[in-house]
Amino acid sequence: MSSGNIVERLRAMAANLDQFRRDKIEDELSEAADVIERLRAELDRLDKQAETPAVPTSVTEQG
Predict the structure, then answer these.
(1) What is the distance between the alpha carbons of residues 47 and 23, in angstroms, rounded to a whole number?
(2) Measured between alpha carbons, how far is 43 from 63 in angstroms, rounded to an integer?
(3) What confidence score (pLDDT) does residue 37 get?
């Protein structure tokens, strides 16, 4: 079950818990957590960029 959408893999596991070893489920959950963490970090980075005021070109050329 290594290919495909992680959400679909988790849904399949949830629907058939008795068919999967606990360590396999935990591996999938860990992978999902890593993806979520990376996505949150990227969103935070984009938010910080959006909050940073743009410096007009004329100001930077004077310095």
Answers:
(1) 36
(2) 32
(3) 97
What gap in Å lies between CA 5 and CA 24, rounded to an integer? Answer: 16
| 18's tokens | 């008795």
Q: Produce one character per residue of 10-32: b if its CB has 16 or more CB atoms within 10 Å, e if not.
A: beebeeeeeebeeeeeeebeeee
Residue pLDDT, tens place only, 10-62: 999 999 999 999 999 999 999 999 999 999 999 999 999 988 876 766 655 65
Backbone phi, then psi, for 24, in 5-degree steps?
-65, -45
Helix (H) or strand (E) holding 59: helix 57-62
C-alpha 61/C-alpha 56 separation (Å) is 9
In angstroms, what CA-CA distances link 21 with 13, 16, 28, 34, 55? 10, 11, 11, 20, 55
